Amino acid sequence: MEKTHIEEAINGKGLLQSEETRKLQYTGGSSYIVSLPKKWIQDLGLKQGDHVVILRQGNSTLQIAPASKRPIKEQKEATIEVGKDHNPYFIARKLIALYFLGFNVINVIPKEDRLLVEQREVIKNIIRRVLMGTEIIADSATGITLQVLINLLDLSVDTAFKRMLLIAKSMHRDTLLSLRENNVELAQEVIKSDDEVDRFSFYIVRQLKIAIKNEYLLKEIGLEEPRNCLGYRLIAKSVERVADHAVTIAKDVIEIRQPLNKDIVEKISNMSYFALEVLDDSCLSMFKRDYEAADRAIEKARKIDEMEKAILRTVSKPRDVNELYRIKLITENIRRVAEYASDIAEIVINMTVQQTLRKG
Questions:
Q1: Could you read off the pLDDT tens digit of each residue along the chain, which spans 360 residues?
Q2: Which of 190, 296, 305, 323 could disulfide-link 318, Cβ–Cβ 3.0 to 4.6 Å?
Q3: Domain span including residue 19
Q4: What pTM was computed for the model?
Q5: Domain C-terminal end among 92, 114, 148
Q6: Looking at the structure, do residues 274 and 141 belong to the same domain, yes or no?
Q7: Listed residues 148, 179, 205: the one ending a domain
């Protein structure tokens, strides 16, 4: 069926047409056929002869999907021109932005004759620290080419998030251990671990940006509908901030190098374990899509304020002003963990509230 001039004009303005009415035709005495819009087929990367799967959903819906379980292989390539006067952070920001947008190959070339040594080091450092699944496939003074080798379906968003969460929680446990033992080396390891959390966070953002453009890929990576992408993005950011608070406490251990009172450290540890418990509850409610569990996690998180006040009351007469400042800094960072856990639970509630409504 040919498009009308009106339809062509609408599509020409860039508006996405997501619904069309087509007529069923009877053929062969036992089958019905229906034509599909050419633009939709092209957008999905399909061609004549490809197989599609027809699914019956309930009593009133039919769904047509590509038969292949592999994602559409689109080799997206971009080139960055770098001048000698460009700040290294210019390169870093652009590399990360292109990574987020789903480019598979990124070329960095000089505007003049060659890249500066400092610029090349920045590129390699960015790839090593934050761009998961990316490797350098060409490296010289006249240009660097990096390629994202990891497949979209190799690591699901849920799996990446679980690994990110485990690292963030381990950072907090190691931070408490370094505080208890006044262990500077362990605190330094905590700071290094923050790069791993950032790598998973950036990877999740990249996956969400790619999948939100294709409903089929969205379901393949474990998400039910496009609106969940925003929720996952905010949740990943919250876990990233949880790791940042562990780094702040670790830096305090490194900079002060003075042990705190053992009784105070024990109370701080109990507070931290409680905050991580709330974080666990919130994230578990997300994985299970459990509205009630998320609501309970929010109520539980409220207790963190009283725990913080109880610790500060016990140090009303500190040995010195710096000690009181340190305790306030540490307890505030732990309290923020519980608050981020509460934020995650609120997002889960927004994502699952519809399933609590009575149908009818």
A1: 344 333 343 344 433 456 788 888 887 777 888 888 888 888 777 888 888 877 665 566 777 777 664 444 556 889 999 888 888 788 888 999 999 888 889 999 888 888 888 888 888 888 888 888 888 888 888 888 988 887 656 677 888 899 999 999 999 999 999 999 999 999 999 999 999 999 999 999 888 888 777 666 776 666 777 778 888 899 999 999 999 999 999 999 999 888 888 899 999 999 999 999 999 999 999 989 899 999 999 999 999 999 999 998 887 665 667 788 899 999 999 999 999 999 999 999 998 887 777 544
A2: 323
A3: 5-66
A4: 0.73
A5: 148
A6: no
A7: 148
Task: Give a yes or no: residue 72 inside a domain.
Answer: no
Give dist(CA 260, CA 180) in Å, integer. Answer: 8
**Same domain (yes/no): 194, 299:** yes
SS3 annotation, 180-215 = HHCCHHHHHHHHHHHHHHHHHHHHHHHHHHHHCCCH
Q: Which residues have a Cβ under 8 Å from the Cβ of 34 and sit 6 or more positions away? A: 22, 23, 24, 25
Residue 130 · residue 202 · CB < 8 Å: yes
Which residue is associated with the tokens 């819009």? 37
